[in-house]
Write a structure and sequence with these properties.
single chain, 400 residues, alpha+beta, 6-stranded mixed β-sheet, 13 strands, binds alpha-D-galactopyranose
Length: 400
């Protein structure tokens, strides 16, 4: 993350908004791109995200009150305020409830939190499926817990932020985004096992290629979209698979869909009577296998095959999970006849947002022009492109 200039900007904004920055501290947490493993973090699967160099910066300082929290952001007018003794009222804020939810989780963990002021600056495009909200949650969780003497880090920080989004903001998200924002490592992707909530790093060596994000500029909103509906469908899918499996001789029900192998999928899925549920299950189990396969390919430097699996994954989320939409489909299709793009897929929650593309470095400008022309012809929208660099996870920025 371009720390120096952003740190200066956020401190200067803090000063303009709340007065003196004496005693203020600055924290940063990145957004993420998910390379493969979509919509399976909440099914006990493997996912393969990487932290971006884009993220959220927060300058934060105790304000001497017992329970008044004041929040501001460079992109939001005015100051939002809530009381640590009235989280019901905090829920009604039209901005700031990710932060309030995280603070509530810290207090529920037994931390003693007092009043504070916090100013936010984000370098991630909002609503683009790059986890701007997780980066707000994680920067807040790390910042507030550290300020009040009890730094929460690692898996516990990620889980607290996920609970905040589930309970306070009503989005039943999985653990991927918050975990990637916490655990990011420059130059590496994170192979996250969502069943055990643990990870290993994999060097992201793409040869002469770059990762290019193509933003449909169609905002997605997880809450309003079909995210929670998909979660209900896969819960039914798990019940169905277990019912069928047990009737065919399996001893114990499995804890999640990703515990089923591809062979078991082949055997049981034809017995699922509901077409929609069957398709969702087929996506989840096959996607989990694709993640494992693609990581081996990447580790062996088989980039073309890695890229091809990304395309397969896109078609699975498009036709089986039905979580893309006209814009994502158009921007994906626009890449198919561009030879120097060896892989492409939607990334994140879907229903809008971005695709991630592996493109030969010298062909990036031509790629942008090619995709933009075709995408605009189909949808009338103007896309945006970002060459993404893979950065570090959440941290405090040392001030001189
Ligand atoms: C959103 C959620 C994640 C994950 C993805 C889809 O980003 O926050 O938990 O489910 O969608 O893979």
């Amino acid at each position: 993350m371009e720390s120096n200039s952003q740190t200066e900007r956020i401190l200067s904004f803090f000063k303009d908004t709340f007065g003196s920055t004496d005693g203020a501290r600055v924290f940063a947490a990145p957004g993420r791109v998910n390379l493969i493993g979509e919509h399976i973090d909440y099914c006990g699967g493997f996912v393969f995200p990487a932290a971006l160099t884009l993220g959220t910066y927060v300058a934060i300082k105790k304000n001497g009150t017992k329970e008044t929290v004041r929040l501001a952001a460079t992109t939001v007018d005015g100051i939002r305020s809530f009381s640590l003794s009235d989280f019901d009222a905090a829920k009604q804020m039209n901005w700031g409830n990710y932060q309030a939810g995280v603070v509530k989780e810290l207090m529920d963990l037994g931390m003693e939190i007092g009043g504070f002021d916090a100013a936010y600056l984000s370098t991630i495009p909002f609503g683009a499926g790059l986890s701007s909200s997780a980066s707000i949650e994680v920067s807040t969780g790390l910042g507030v817990s550290t300020l009040f003497g009890n730094p929460l880090t690692g898996k516990e920080l990620a889980l607290a932020c996920q609970r905040a989004e589930n309970r306070f903001c009503g989005v039943s998200c999985g653990i991927m985004d918050q975990y990637a924002s916490v655990a990011g490592l420059a130059g590496h992707a994170i192979l996250l096992d969502c069943a055990s909530v643990s990870h290993k790093y994999v060097p992201l060596d793409l040869g002469g290629n770059l990762l290019v994000l193509a933003n449909t500029c169609k905002k997605h909103s997880l809450g309003a979209s079909k995210y929670n509906e998909r979660r209900r469908e896969v819960a039914i899918g798990l019940e169905e698979m277990n019912r069928i499996a047990v009737s065919l001789g399996q001893k114990e029900p499995k804890p999640d869909l990703c515990s089923f192998s591809k062979d078991e999928l082949r055997e049981y899925a034809p017995h699922i009577t509901d077409d929609v549920i069957r398709k969702r299950v087929m996506h989840v189990v096959s996607e989990n296998q694709r993640v494992k396969d693609s990581v081996s390919l990447l580790e062996n430097g088989e980039l073309e095959a890695f890229g091809a699996l990304l395309r397969d994954a896109n078609q699975s989320i498009r036709y089986l999970y039905e979580a893309t939409g006209e814009e994502l489909d158009a921007i994906f299709d626009a890449t198919l006849d561009f030879e120097d793009c060896i892989g492409s897929r939607m990334t994140g929650g879907g229903f809008g947002g971005c695709t991630v593309n592996i493109v030969k470095a010298e062909a990036v400008e031509a790629f942008k022009a090619h995709v933009a022309k075709k995408y605009t012809a189909v949808t009338g929208n103007i896309p945006e492109f970002y060459v993404c660099e893979v950065g570090d996870g959440a941290r405090e920025i040392t001030l001189e």
